[in-house]
Amino acid sequence: MAMPTPEDRLAPAGIFLSNRADSVPAAQRVYDALRERIVSMELPPGATLSRVDLAKQFDVSLTPIREAMQRLEQDGLIRIIPQSKTEVTRIDVAQLYEAHFLRVSVEAEVARRLAEAPDPAVLKKARAILTMQDTLVDNLDEIDLFNQLDEAFHQTLFAGVGQLNLHAMLKAKAGHLTRVRRLDLPAEGKIRRIMKGHWAVLEAIESGDPQAAHEAMRDHLAGTVKRIPELQQEYPGYFKPAE
To answer: Where are the beta strands (DSSP E) in the chain?
Structure first.
């Protein structure tokens, strides 16, 4: 019997899923896959990308590869050097701080609005996601599924205030921030701190306390950014040199 995919395991809970490959345009499929490989650090900063090799890997023409790369360049995740090469960019701390500022401002407001009028259906879905996440805290072999659930939790909150398009925009702008979060994830106690923050946000929303929900989300999103100087020392080759 085939092993269930992460999507199969998430589906019964009604969790947001990436579109299946057979229903996604080729350029979108390539973009999604390459972006995940970059932000997961499978393709680390400085890695070079070959359009021809990628076309073979994805079994597509060069056109969707080119379209996907253009989007990744707009996201700041790759640099296309005409007539030379395409490479994964190094993490830009200035852009990272901008993305973090924007994310905190928006998501804290999302949490506040949800707490003003808690929606039982939204809260039920969010609680189901966190319950699933809790089962993975001590299982680093399932870190990809943990990250999918993390994304699903935040996406569920945005959906609860009717702002899924805003969630997608923030995700596109947060590539540098996402890479730093992935670097920080193996740190001792990090996953448990993430879960503590998630539950604090949800419980504040459920209690109908807008200010507590606002503050809980701000606290939850602050953890990784505080560790940037340490991460720069630990992974100096991954970060763009200060200008």
So the answer is: 48-49, 78-81, 85-88
- The residues, any chain, with a CB within 8 Å of residue 121's CB and separated by 6 or more, are none
- 48 token code pair: 């070079």
Average pLDDT over residues 195-206: 97
Q: What domains can be seen in the chain, in order of their start residue?
A: 22-88 (1.10.10.10), 93-238 (1.20.120.530)
What is the residue type of 71? R
Gap between the Cα atoms of 81 and 137, Å rounded: 41
* CB contact at 8 A, 88 and 50: no
CA distance 83 to 181: 33
Q: Are 96 and 176 in contact (CB under 8 A)?
A: yes
- The pTM (predicted TM-score) of the whole model is 0.85
117's enclosing H/E stretch is none
